[in-house]
Structures are given as structure tokens and as C-alpha cells.
Design brief:
single chain; 285 residues; alpha+beta; Methane Monooxygenase Hydroxylase, Chain G, domain 1; Beta-lactamase; five-stranded antiparallel beta sheet; two-stranded antiparallel sheet; 9 helices; globular
Length: 285
């Protein structure tokens, strides 16, 4: 795959006027111009995964590609589909063999089996019953629970192991290399930024500044830091200059009627990141 190749090279159905020039890099940096997601009323009217994917492929940019950051589930869905077309196998099969298994991430899975359900925090309520182990995203749910934008379950320990892999720039715990160091650096370096009030992006990661009034990365993480958050209440931030990462997994989505849940969670995320940075700095003295 080529980052600056048109997505249409790998997904022939994504070649209509307006989308034919969107690149893989623009999907990764959320600068494709596509909107955030398919509106709920329209999504609910689609009956199966083929219908969802067909609808995503019909999307058109809402702003010219490459001109601003719009975080979009559609970008991630398309990236997952690119992986499927290029490798010839489903996203979960490919990533389990190529990433999860070599890293020993046994608890990082799409569509967790019933034996894991008792360990999974609920993230929603359906007819009065807590829902756990089912993806909390309408598009990913209709795509069968395996999608580039949502559906991955894990423990904090496995997310930490993945963070260590990134901090080590692509080596396994035994020192053998899984990914080239220059590839890790390319994906984790700031790629686009449109000013202090807009979020900066790396390839697949959020960078600093986040463009938020209350940043999920706090106020102390270094300028080369990168991370990602999840709608249900999860986050991972990495400060490579401190050799530091912070994993925070919550089920904020389980109480959607709580007062200011997003703002409170951002404050907690930022507070934890700042506490970790202070502890790291104190240890380094």
C-alpha cells in the first residue's frame, strides 16, 4: 500500500467525483472531508453490512479534502475495508495474526466469545438490561462487530503491552523486530495541523494540540505526544520523550444521562495524564 495513493486504487467503488482523489493518508489523518458518520435515522434503515458499506462508498466530502480535520468514523471504516481488499481476508483475521498474536495480546479481540463476557464492563442498556461485549456503535454493529472504527475489546494490560511496543518503536519484548522503527516514527509524528484551535493529527493518532478546551492529554505531555480516545470512555496517550504512556479504560457510555459526562471524563483523562507526567519528572530528577 502507498499512503499517498488514491483510496480508489484499493476500493474501486470509491471512485466517484469528489472521492476519486482522496488518499489513504487523508483517511488516516481525518482530512478526507467526509462527515463524522452516517446519521442515525439513515443508518437504522439499512438492513445489513453490505448496505452499510455501499452507503459509506457513496459518501461525498463535505469540505475539500486536505483542508481541515473532521474526525470521521467513515474514514476508519474505509481503512478497514482497504485492509480487507489488500490482504484478501477480514480485518480481525489479519490483525490477530500479524499484530495481536506476535505481541501476546490474548485479550484484545473483536466479537469477544461468551467466556469473556463476565469480565467485560457494560457500556449500554437495552430494555433495562446491561449490555456488555457488544460493540457500542451503530455502524460497526451492522458491519458484524468487526470494523475499522469500533468493536475492539481489550484489557488495560494488553493496551499497555501495545503501548510498550509503540514506545519501543516496533520491537517485541524479546528484542526481535515486528515493524520498522521508521514506520512507527512516521505514523506517530504530527502529520497535519491547522492552527491552535484545531486538533493536530498523526497517521491514525491524535496529536497535540487536541483543539479541546479541556484536553484529554492534560497540560504537561510533551509536544511530540500522540494518543487516541474511544467513545465509550477509553483512552491511550503516549509521550515518547518521557518514555511514558497512560491507559485509562472506563465505561462512561453506560450512564449517558449523567451530567456533563464528556467534560467530566476529559477532566479525569487530563488529570491522570498530568499526574503521570509529574510522577515521571519527579522520578527522573
Amino acid at each position: 500500500m502507498r499512503l499517498d495513493a488514491p483510496v480508489a486504487r484499493y476500493l474501486p467503488g470509491f471512485d466517484a467525483p469528489g472521492t476519486e482523489g482522496i488518499t489513504v493518508r487523508q483517511l488516516l489523518t481525518h482530512t478526507s472531508g467526509l462527515r463524522a458518520d452516517i446519521p442515525d435515522p439513515e443508518l437504522k434503515a439499512i438492513h445489513d453490512s453490505a448496505g452499510v458499506m455501499a452507503r459509506v462508498l457513496r459518501e461525498r466530502p463535505r469540505v475539500p479534502p486536505g483542508t481541515r480535520v473532521i474526525y470521521s468514523d467513515l474514514n476508519a471504516i474505509l481503512l478497514g475495508e482497504v485492509v480487507r481488499h489488500v490482504t484478501g481476508e477480514p480485518l480481525d483475521v489479519f490483525i490477530t495474526r500479524e499484530v495481536f498474536r506476535p505481541l501476546g495480546l490474548d485479550a484484545m479481540v473483536f466479537r469477544p466469545p461468551p467466556r469473556l463476557r463476565p469480565r467485560i464492563a457494560p457500556t449500554g442498556v437495552w430494555h433495562g438490561h446491561a449490555i456488555a461485549g457488544t460493540v457500542n456503535d451503530g455502524s460497526a454493529f451492522k458491519l458484524g462487530g468487526v470494523s475499522g472504527n469500533a468493536g475492539l475489546f481489550s484489557t488495560a494490560a494488553d493496551v499497555a503491552r501495545f503501548a510498550q511496543f509503540v514506545v519501543r518503536e516496533g520491537t517485541l519484548p524479546d528484542g526481535s523486530r515486528l515493524v520498522r522503527a521508521e514506520t512507527v516514527r512516521q505514523f506517530t509524528s504530527k502529520a497535519v495541523a491547522f492552527g491552535a484551535k484545531s486538533e493536530a493529527r498523526a497517521l491514525g493518532w491524535q496529536a497535540l494540540p487536541t483543539g479541546e478546551n479541556v484536553s484529554s492529554a492534560g497540560t504537561l505531555f510533551g509536544p511530540r505526544s500522540f494518543g487516541h480516545t474511544g467513545w465509550t470512555g477509553t483512552s491511550l496517550w503516549i509521550d515518547p520523550d518521557r518514555d511514558l504512556f497512560v491507559v485509562l479504560l472506563t465505561n462512561r457510555a453506560y450512564a449517558p444521562r449523567a451530567r456533563r459526562p464528556f467534560t467530566v471524563l476529559k477532566e479525569i483523562r487530563g488529570g491522570v495524564a498530568d499526574a503521570a507526567a509529574r510522577a515521571s519528572d519527579a522520578q527522573a530528577r
